[in-house]
Design goal:
Elements: H1 2-17, E1 33-43, E2 46-53, E3 61-69, H2 71-76, H3 78-87, E4 94-105, H4 110-123, E5 128-132, H5 136-141, E6 148-153, E7 159-164, H6 169-185
Length: 194
């Protein structure tokens, strides 16, 4: 009887064991370097890719979205992305960063996923887009497959807030308010546009 209960409890907890990320509030993300694709840059109307390191997350307040290269993952936090666009945060002190895990996409959709990311970079040149072709972030940070994870980082790259999965409207408001608080704590250049 005891063995049966132990097995039952183990089976119930099993999904939780493999899905826990390793982010720690107040710390930086575990370092990764993406050499295949990486950061998508737009210069003089031309797109190109550049190697990217997670240490580059420091320097601005950021909302980072790490997502699987699937429409279902993108839709999970569309409400937050809309709220960020509407907030019109100052580009000199804030940058949304989207890291797309193209290793976690539906087979045969890679070309379309990449073209969509490139279209978004042209549409939102102030935003940062990174392609993680080998799922290094997912593996290093122990993230769930087919999902979306949101991180809020201060300008030093320290994690202030994190959640895997879809955010509720209340959590979206919480993230936006936290961004505003972090921006208000930061000195800013008086010559820069607000």
């Amino acid at each position: 009887m005891t063995l049966c209960r132990l097995v039952s409890i183990s089976l119930l907890l099993w999904p939780l064991a493999g899905s826990a990320h390793n982010f720690i509030i107040g710390e930086r993300v575990k370092p990764i370097m993406i050499t295949d694709r990486g950061a998508l840059l737009l210069n003089d109307g031309r797109l190109h890719y550049q190697r990217w390191r997670s240490s580059e997350l420091a320097g601005k307040v950021r909302v980072v979205q790490y997502i699987a290269g699937r429409t279902s993952a993108k839709k999970k936090n569309a409400l937050l992305i809309s709220a960020i666009k509407d907030a019109k945060f100052p580009a000199d002190r804030f940058q949304p960063t989207t890291i797309v895990n193209t290793d976690d996409e539906i087979v045969g959709t890679g070309f379309f996923v990449q073209k969509k990311i490139e279209k978004n970079k042209k549409r939102y040149p102030w935003a940062q887009f990174i392609i993680d072709s080998h799922g290094l972030g997912q593996k290093t940070w122990q993230l769930e497959e087919e999902n979306s994870t949101i991180l809020l980082l201060d300008n030093e790259g320290h994690i202030q807030w994190v959640k895997e999965g879809a955010l509720t409207p209340k959590e979206v408001r919480e993230v936006i308010n936290n961004v505003l608080s972090l921006l208000n704590e930061q000195p800013h250049n008086a010559d820069s546009p607000k």
